[in-house]
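Appendix B. Extra example for self-study. Work through it before the problem class; the solution is given directly after the inputs so you can check yourself.
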Amino acid sequence: MSATLTITRDRRVAEMLSRRRQRSNAVVKTLCLIATLIGLAFLVSILLTLVLRGAGAIALSTFTHVTKAPGSGGGLLNAIIGSLIQTVVGTAIGTPIGLLAGTYLAEYASGSRLGDVIRFVSDILLSAPSILIGLFVYQLMVAPAGGFSGIAGCVALAVIVIPIVVRTTEDMLRLIPVSLREAAVALGAPKWKSITLICYRAARDGIATGVLLAVARIAGETAPLLFTSLGNLNWSLDLTQPMSSLPVTIYQYAGSAFDDWVQLAWAGALIITMGVLAINVVARLVLRPRS
Amino acid sequence: MSTTTVDTPPVARATGGNSRTGDKLFAGAATASGLFVLVLLGAIIVSLFIGALPAFRAFGPFFLVNANWDPVQEIFGAAVPIFGTVVTSVLALLMAVPLAFGIAFFLTELAPAWMRRPVGTAIELLAAVPSIIFGMWGFFVIVPIMGTYIEPPIIDLLDGVPLLGTLFSGAPFGTGIFTAALILALMVIPFIAATMRDVFLTVPAVYKESAYGLGCTTWEVMRSIVIPFTRVSVVGGIMLGLGRALGETMAVTFVIGNTNRITGSLFGPGNTIASIVALEFPESPAGSLKLSSLLALGFILFAISFIVLAISRFLLKPKAAA
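Solution. Structure tokens for the complete assembly:
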């Protein structure tokens, strides 16, 4: 008699406990779903805002005219070209250094103290505030030269590229199976040939992804360019003179009181965001393992 | 040793010599590039410090606690920007961490397999959006919403409540410390969520399966198996997010209100180290004490970020090595 009572009570308690556990599980799951939806909602909101305000502002003149005084129908041609030049030159300077440094970490410095220090320093540079890199290049190049220049902007962007390429190169080289290296060595290939002809080739997709992500990152950088290439409202391809760039122009125009400048800022914002996101998507497709 | 008697064919000798030179050259170039990275960080520290010296000499340690920024009398202090930097970043983490955790949990345990990759990519794309875009979007979209729909009711609701009433008081401009923290939170969520997702995935499936086998719910597995197993790395990921938030410039500059004053209210305007450097730099002639003070602020920001990032790396490392 009392035994049956205990059993039914125990079962009731167990059921209550189980229900409570299921309930808290459901609550947490719902909250996580909401968190993800909030994150996605913000991305959608940013993209929608850009398309709604930017698409109407983009005209043919945006790509054919240089920046002009407010009210006289300028475009963004010099900013777009300036951004392209600085991004390309910055990548061209930073990539070989980053590639070689990453190779050093993966192939020459395994387990060495110096390698650990360089890896640590590179990781710090990877996350260091980009505005400080701008100040650094200002101190290094702009202040001694007595003027802002496009090449200073390129160098600042190159400093941002280096740690990104170091990280991906090292990671990708470490993924190469030992047997591949051994095969190269067995054929009598010296180390530098096995690295450049075998390992680089095998790691090509991964390294390319790193470079693409670096390009996407520096294409949208504003803060380091404020102190280096400054911006230029006139047409200029001279790397020793101040050079215009899309992010800096957006910064100047978005905060201005002139409606047509704000419109151009939205147009520029749409162009740069679509470019950066497109590079990111392409980079991810490259990285995706081939079937 | 020099009198080698082994008869090597000339061709082999030639390629052997070639490869040795090639090896030396390549190893030299790689090592030099590695050392270059090291020198780069050293050069950043040294150049900022040299630029900051006049300000440090002029103001001494008082620079850190002085809340003045007076270009007319040439008296500069770092207290307000340091305060703003720390408050916005910590506030941003308070908002970002729960959301990032939810996203990481969703992506690792809850979402159906087909959904993980696209949703994960979308969150990562949020990290790729340039910070100036966050700034513009924040200024033109979030600031009006905050000023019209969010801040006035909160100010009215908490009016008269001790402490909270002060924290959320003032005029609802829409800009200010709180809005800046909100934008920062959005910007660091992808970094924290991605790190959390990656470390959650390192938990051996056997542990989780054992817990499920005992009848645990998903949340219980998360709470009692995954979180304890990854705790250190999760904190490392949060520190990584903090490092990002501390130095963020453009987005903050657009929405923080840019006032060199510490107000008791989170809705009040303020500034951060990065925002004051970006704004004041154009009006600071080369060689001026003002420019030197900005470089000193940069040096302080570098020191803070360095410590935070070093801790983050230290915490993230053991799991990565294991």
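Self-check: Chain B touches chain A through 91 residues (CB under 8 Å). If your reasoning did not lead you there, revisit section 3.
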